[in-house]
UniProtKB/TrEMBL annotation:
One of its GO terms (biological process) is DNA metabolic process. GO terms for molecular function: exonuclease activity; nucleic acid binding. The lineage of its organism: Bacteria, Pseudomonadati, Pseudomonadota, Alphaproteobacteria, Sphingomonadales. It comes from the Bacteria. Keywords: Hydrolase. This is Exodeoxyribonuclease X. SMART domains: EXOIII. Its EC number is 3.1.11.-. InterPro entries: Ribonucl_H (IPR013520), RNaseH-like_sf (IPR012337), RNaseH_sf (IPR036397). Residues 6-179 form the Exonuclease domain.
Length: 252
C-alpha cells in the first residue's frame, strides 16, 4: 500500500496529559485509504496495543478508560512500541487524531518520523460549524457517519474504538474538502464557529460588534484570538489590529 494513499488515525489512552510526567498505556489505530474511485475509505488495517507507561495509572484516569496497572504490566514501553505503529511499512501521507495536539505531545517527531498531522477537531469546526459540540462522540451521533459499526465504536475512551470513530469523520472530511485543505487547516489554530465562553458564549462571530471582536482578539486562548481576528479581517473597512504592546512600553 503506497504511503501517499494512506492516513493512519491514532488515539492514545494515557496516565495523564503531560509527558514526561505522564505516559501512554494504550494506542489504537485505524487506516483510511484512497480508493480506486478517488474516494477515501476505511480499510482493514486497524488495531490496538497496551503500553507499559512506566508509572502507576492514577485512579482518576482509570475511571475514564478503565485500564488498570495489571492490564499493562507485561506490555512493552512506549519508545519500543510507537515507531512500528506511527511509521508503518509502506509509509503514510499523514497521521490523524481528534484534537491531535494531545497525541502529538506523546507522538514526537522522533517517534513518528516527522509525519504531518491532521486534526479532525479543527477540520470539523470548518466543515460542520452547526454541530452542537465538536467532541468525537457528539460528532458521531450528530452526523451518524455512513458505515460506522456501533459495536466497533464502543466502549468510548478506549484507543481503538475512538480511533475507529475518528476515522469516519476523517474519511468524510477528506472526501468533502481534500487532503491539502485539511493539512492547511490543521496547521492553523482552530477556527471556532461560535464564542466558547464569557458573556457572548454561543454567539456566532458575525453577530458581535467590532469592539467586542477586538477585545476577544487579545484573548489568551489562541483559538479565540484567531477566530476573532478572522472575522475582523473579513469585514468591510477593516483597518488592522493594533500590535500588542507591553505594559512597560505603554508607560514609556
Amino acid at each position: 500500500m503506497a504511503g501517499q494513499s494512506r492516513i493512519r488515525v491514532v488515539d492514545l489512552e494515557t496516565t495523564g496529559s503531560r509527558p514526561p510526567a505522564h505516559g501512554v498505556c494504550e494506542i489504537g489505530w485505524q487506516d483510511v485509504v484512497l480508493g480506486a474511485d478517488g474516494k477515501w475509505q476505511l480499510c482493514e488495517e486497524r488495531g490496538a496495543l497496551f503500553v507499559n507507561p512506566g508509572r502507576p495509572i492514577p485512579a482518576v484516569t482509570m475511571a475514564v478508560h478503565h485500564i488498570i496497572d495489571a492490564d499493562v504490566a507485561a506490555s512493552p514501553f512506549w519508545k519500543s512500541t510507537a515507531p512500528d505503529i506511527l511509521k508503518p511499512k509502506g509509509g503514510v501521507v499523514a497521521l490523524a487524531a481528534h484534537r491531535a495536539a494531545f497525541e502529538q505531545r506523546f507522538c514526537t517527531p522522533e517517534l513518528s518520523g516527522g509525519a504531518a498531522w491532521i486534526c479532525t477537531w479543527k477540520c470539523a469546526l470548518r466543515l460542520w460549524p452547526d454541530s452542537p459540540s465538536f467532541s468525537n462522540q457528539v460528532l458521531r451521533y450528530w452526523r451518524m457517519p455512513e458505515g460506522l459499526d456501533r459495536e466497533m465504536g464502543l466502549p468510548v475512551h478506549r484507543a481503538f474504538p475512538d480511533a475507529y470513530v475518528t476515522a469516519h469523520h476523517l474519511r468524510d472530511q477528506l472526501n468533502e474538502a481534500g487532503l491539502e485543505t485539511l493539512l492547511k487547516w490543521s496547521a492553523e489554530p482552530g477556527l471556532l464557529p461560535r464564542v466558547p465562553a464569557g458573556p457572548d458564549r454561543g454567539k456566532y462571530w458575525g453577530a458581535l460588534d467590532d469592539a467586542t471582536l477586538r477585545r476577544l482578539a487579545a484573548d489568551r486562548d489562541e483559538d479565540i484570538r484567531f477566530s476573532a481576528e478572522t472575522e475582523l479581517r473579513g469585514r468591510d473597512g477593516f483597518v488592522g489590529l493594533e500590535p500588542e504592546v507591553s505594559a512597560q512600553g505603554r508607560l514609556l
